[in-house]
């Protein structure tokens, strides 16, 4: 990549010399072909989500949080690679006040415009080059609440906070390339008053740092993770740990919701063990779950360690754990494909019931068919493009998504269908995939033309 860079530097210098103008170092590096990175990735539902011009490899987040005041003091260190010659670039950020931004160790200019944090490094970043961004910020993060999608982001609780990103809440607590298409690994260093528990995705380092009445714990997510799946949970928790199927199972619950956490630890292990047989090897280094009193009214499949609001019943655990394969290790390319998450996770519930003494998936499928009175409403939108404000509509995305998979199973037969599930998670492991990718794999494995089936189930409003 150096070879791309050198001639441009040389040209820039030549111009400066012939004009006899002592150009400041940044003059040539920000001139064409160095251009600003795009302020969004053009997601059909969230145009400003994510940014163009770079690819994040790793987020290192140092978070010092005080539950009594809900104040966060943080340093985000981001390692990325430029995918174009960049004169400047954006991160998504709507968190508290920024105290400084550095690129490659040097102070960088920055300004904020809506959810965009616009950063101009002191010299341009050549395509292909790795660079680091450091952002220091402090204050009280607040979540995003909309009528259609409810609350996401940094959710304060009476004794701490829990961060839940889906779909666009990550930017409320760290500067981020906030689109599922840019997955990265994460390290979390969380400092709290000693005695408070701090949890996050992945695995915890053995040694804590204890200093001046504060404890710092480090968590690492070593597999690529979409930003909406990044999670921290700080507060008073009862933590349970044990080995399960060769991995660490770490679950935790707020003692005030103890009743809702009964069975969490064991059911988590059971669900993961069963799903590993049906969906392919479990993708992450540890398993677990957290139950807290949140009032967001949903559970979220945060990578390797889902979060449940108030209670975690068996089928919800099966659902959130199924997302570890469908959504987490294989992530949609665009939010439009959200049924790839929710349809599969809901179908996992149907399959669990079928294989654990409950109704067959066929029976559940039939029972899901609406009666005459509800039919018009039930079939009215498109599963494969529900619209932003309907992306979590239960009947539309979850139930009709699961029905789509059941229809596929009937069309290609059990044998092929149950080979398709692990083949899908193996093929796109660690990356992103679209509905078109699923159709292509299903057609290849079954030897059947499936366009009509998917058209009818995903891209038509009305009963297939
Ligand atoms: N993915 C979650 C689930 O497992 C739902 C998230 C809903 N998010 C929201 N902001 N409403 O069903
Ligand atoms: Zn779900």
What's the topology here?
Layout: H1 2-19, H2 25-30, E1 35-36, E2 54-66, E3 71-82, E4 86-92, E5 98-103, E6 106-107, E7 109-113, E8 116-120, E9 130-139, E10 144-146, E11 150-157, E12 160-164, E13 184-193, E14 197-200, E15 203-204, E16 209-211, E17 214-225, E18 232-235, E19 238-244, E20 247-253, H3 264-279, E21 286-292, E22 307-309, H4 314-322, E23 330-332, H5 339-355, H6 361-368, H7 372-378, H8 394-427, E24 431-433, H9 435-446, H10 451-458
Parallel strand pairs: 1-4, 2-13, 20-21, 21-22, 23-24
Antiparallel strand pairs: 2-3, 3-9, 4-8, 5-6, 5-9, 7-8, 10-11, 11-12, 12-18, 13-17, 14-18, 15-17, 16-17, 19-20
Zinc ion binds at residues 319, 323, 341-342, 345.
Task: Please tell me about this protein's structure.
Strand 10 and strand 11 (150-157) form a beta hairpin. Among the domains are: 54-236, tricorn interacting facor f3 domain (Immunoglobulin-like), CATH 2.60.40.1730; 331-458, Neutral Protease Domain 2 (Neutral Protease, domain 2), CATH 1.10.390.10. The protein is globular. The protein is α+β, with helices and mostly antiparallel strands and 464 residues long. It is 29% helix and 31% strand. Helix 3 (264-279) crosses helix 4 (314-322) and helix 5 packs across helix 8 (394-427). Residues 1-19 and 23-28 have low confidence and may be disordered. The longest helix is centred in the last third of the chain and has 34 residues, at 394-427. The protein has ten helices and 24 strands. The structure holds arginine and zinc ion. Arginine binds next to strand 11 and helix 4. Zinc ion (ZN) is lined by residues 319, 323, 341-342, 345.
């Amino acid at each position: 990549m150096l070879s791309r860079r050198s001639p441009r530097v040389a040209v820039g210098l030549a111009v400066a010399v012939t004009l006899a103008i002592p150009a400041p170092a940044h003059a040539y590096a920000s001139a064409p072909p160095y251009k600003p990175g795009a302020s969004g990735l053009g997601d059909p539902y969230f145009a400003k989500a994510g940014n163009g011009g770079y690819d994040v490899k790793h987020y290192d987040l140092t978070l010092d949080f005080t539950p009594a005041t809900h104040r966060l003091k943080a340093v985000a260190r981001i390692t990325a690679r430029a995918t174009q010659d960049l004169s400047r670039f954006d991160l998504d950020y709507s968190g508290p006040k920024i105290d400084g931004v550095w690129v490659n160790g040097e102070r960088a200019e920055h300004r904020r415009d809506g959810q965009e944090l616009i950063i101009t490094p002191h010299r341009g970043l050549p395509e292909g080059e790795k660079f680091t961004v450091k952002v220091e910020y402090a204050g009280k993060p607040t979540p995003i609440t909309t009528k259609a999608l409810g609350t996401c982001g940094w959710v304060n609780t009476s004794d701490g906070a829990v961060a839940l990103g889906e779909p666009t809440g990550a930017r409320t607590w760290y500067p981020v390339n906030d689109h599922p298409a840019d997955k990265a690994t994460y390290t979390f260093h969380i400092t709290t008053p000693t005695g408070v528990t701090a949890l996050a995705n992945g695995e915890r380092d053995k040694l804590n740092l204890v200093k001046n009445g504060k404890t710092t714990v480090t968590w690492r997510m070593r597999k690529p993770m979409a930003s909406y799946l990044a999670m921290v949970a700080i507060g008073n928790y009862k933590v349970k740990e044990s080995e399960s199927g060769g991995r660490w199972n770490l679950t935790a619950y707020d003692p005030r919701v103890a009743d809702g956490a009964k069975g969490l630890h064991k059911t988590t292990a059971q669900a993961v063990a069963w799903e590993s047989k049906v969906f392919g090897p479990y993708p992450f280094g540890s398993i677990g779950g957290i139950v807290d009193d949140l009032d967001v009214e949903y559970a979220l499949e945060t990578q390797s360690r889902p979060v449940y609001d108030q209670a975690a019943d068996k089928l919800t655990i099966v659902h959130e754990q199924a997302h570890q394969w469908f959504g987490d290790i294989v992530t949609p390319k665009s939010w439009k494909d959200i049924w790839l998450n929710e349809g599969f996770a809901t179908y996992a519930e149907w399959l669990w019931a079928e294989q654990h003494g409950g109704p067959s998936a066929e029976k559940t499928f039939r029972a899901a068919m609406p009666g005459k009175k509800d039919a018009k409403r039930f079939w009215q939108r498109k599963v494969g493009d529900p619209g932003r404000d309907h992306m979590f509509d239960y009947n539309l995305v979850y139930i009709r998504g699961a029905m789509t998979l059941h229809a596929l199973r009937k069309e290609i037969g059990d044998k092929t269908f149950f080979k398709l599930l692990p083949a899908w998670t193996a093929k796109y492991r660690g990356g992103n995939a679209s509905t078109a990718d699923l159709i292509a794999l299903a057609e290849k494995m079954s030897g059947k033309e499936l366009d009509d089936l998917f058209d009818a189930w995903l891209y038509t409003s009305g009963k297939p």
